[in-house]
Amino acid sequence: MDRTGELSEAVHDSAFYRWFGLRLGDVEPGVVTLHLELAEHHVNIQGLAHGGVLATIADAAMGLAVRSAVEPGRRHVTVAMDVHYLRPVARGALSATGRAVRVGRELAFAEAEVADERGRSLVRASGTYSVSRPTED
Amino acid sequence: MDRTGELSEAVHDSAFYRWFGLRLGDVEPGVVTLHLELAEHHVNIQGLAHGGVLATIADAAMGLAVRSAVEPGRRHVTVAMDVHYLRPVARGALSATGRAVRVGRELAFAEAEVADERGRSLVRASGTYSVSRPTED
Amino acid sequence: MDRTGELSEAVHDSAFYRWFGLRLGDVEPGVVTLHLELAEHHVNIQGLAHGGVLATIADAAMGLAVRSAVEPGRRHVTVAMDVHYLRPVARGALSATGRAVRVGRELAFAEAEVADERGRSLVRASGTYSVSRPTED
Amino acid sequence: MDRTGELSEAVHDSAFYRWFGLRLGDVEPGVVTLHLELAEHHVNIQGLAHGGVLATIADAAMGLAVRSAVEPGRRHVTVAMDVHYLRPVARGALSATGRAVRVGRELAFAEAEVADERGRSLVRASGTYSVSRPTED
How many CB pairs under 8 A join C and D? Predict the structure, then answer.
């Protein structure tokens, strides 16, 4: 099974992705796009998409991008994440594109952008991922 | 109504908090604790609490801590957040304590720690929040 | 005087830039490049360029990029900075390119990349800057 | 030679520390304080301590704190750093205290605070450090 198929299956089987409403979009090696239609429960007390919701789709897109760039059998665990909120958003369809910028022997570095339907950048994020083999852990 | 009552009501009325499973714990001015019982849908493909879930409870605790420290009527919008993952966690009850470290005229800075049932630190986070009055925006 | 001239003069007059060894390169509105020839005193105990040195040229390039993108008379003060170290470097000529990604009424967001002589990315950084007018402060 | 002596010697022999003006203060296992007397060349175009200067003393204090907490022979290389600027400072004596919060097999996490003479917090920072043994690299 190719990488797209493997990721699709993993996402499809995931209670987390279903609960969150995340759908897998385009997959290339090292670049993965996710989609989220904002619902009422994604919105904070002030009527805007919750910062944690936007952080989650950025982290998910970066994690899958890293996963798509390493050989099967290596884990990807988030070590640290930075999220910058450029514009608030209240509703609509969001897309998050994660990109593995550098994959090393132990660590990977990825970046993500979350955009609204009109392609405006809402969030820029970056993440550090541990990609050691499970047996090394 | 006091600050604790105001936050309790806001959280109780929030579709986001219900959906996520977040419950409000202790509230002091500038310090707010949230609780989350990890469920199957909070867990990633690898069986560990999703980085975005942990980021969300940290952001929520920091945002409420900032809200509890500013006068009513000022917004709190996340400008940026850093999340550091110290230990993975697979199940159990988590608590996140947010603390408003500094509240200025336009910006606030907060920190959060997410811990497991045994009090072990899982996540350390910090956030920058815009706290301008709505009319100034 | 145009923006490039204004930045050149400011950098030329700066004791900080002389001490650090930073030279101004290309300037476009919102995009500024700085150059640094690594010297013995930029290197840490382990023989590699100090993390703070690399953070400094990233911050300086982002700050000038923001300055080049706002009207004269507005300050730019670093609110927060994230720095990611992708590859160590021991010697040679570095260049840092800062880019103002978004400039708002109160805050600006910028990104920077530090590269070595062969163009390899050593550092990716992002920064949040306060750009309020001095009289508003 | 004990850890304090070893760090003192390393700092004393370092061209970087001399150039920057950094002096080693208290050293305990996992907690290291550095001192810096702000000079004209530490100040930016706007008359305030440069963001990079403050980031550097935070990174240096965290790096030494990590070094003081791991066995001799392990490197400490900055993987990522977040710096939050709470108050500007123009002059005087600064101190930076770094603290190793968690040291793992491959990674360490540290935090730092930079304060002015009156003990007011100027900067809060956190850093991720690679602490692998050289031979594993």
Answer: 120
Nearest to B51 by CA among A98, A6, A39: A98
Given pLDDT bands bounded at 50, 70 and 90, which one contains residue A136? very low
- Of the candidates C27, C103, C101, the residue with the CA atom closest to the CA atom of residue C64: C27
Contacts of D79 in chain A (CB under 8 A): 79, 107, 128
- CB neighbourhood size of C62 (10 A): 31
Could you tell me the domains of chain A? 3-136 (3.10.129.10)
The residue type of B30 is G
In degrees rounded to 5, what are phi and psi of residue A118?
A: -90, 5
The tens digit of pLDDT for each residue in D21-69 reads 999 999 999 999 999 999 999 998 889 999 999 999 999 999 999 999 9
Tens of pLDDT, residues A16-53: 999 999 999 999 999 999 999 999 999 988 899 999 99
Report d(CA B54, CA B91) in Å as an integer. 12
Beta carbons within 8 Å of A105's beta carbon, 6+ residues apart: none
CA A15 to chain centre: 16
Specify the pLDDT at position C136: 43
Both structure tokens of D21: 């003006």
Among the partner residues A52, A78, A85, nearest to B79 by beta-carbon distance: A85
pLDDT digits (tens, 9 = 90+) for D2-25: 778 888 888 888 999 999 999 999
Q: How many CB atoms lie within 10 A of CB C61?
A: 30
C-alpha–C-alpha distance, residues A21 and C77, integer Å:
39
* Three-state SS at C137: coil
Flag if A84 and C124 touch (Cβ within 8 Å): no
**Distance (Å) of CA A103 to CA A69, A136, B26, B104, C136:** 8, 17, 42, 39, 45
CA atoms within 13 A on the CB side of C62: 35
Instruction: Give me the amino acid identity at D6.
Output: E
- Percentage of residues in chain C with pLDDT exceeding 70? 96
- CB–CB contact C106 B132 (8 Å): yes
C46 DSSP 8-state letter: T
Identify the three-state secondary structure at position B6.
Answer: helix
Q: What is the pTM of this model?
A: 0.94
Crossing angle of helices A3-12 and A51-69, rounded to 10°:
140
**Cβ D45–C10 below 8 Å, yes or no?**
yes
Number of neighbours of residue B86 by Cβ within 10 angstroms: 18
Whether residue D83 contacts residue A132, with contact meaning beta carbons closer than 8 Å, is answered with: no
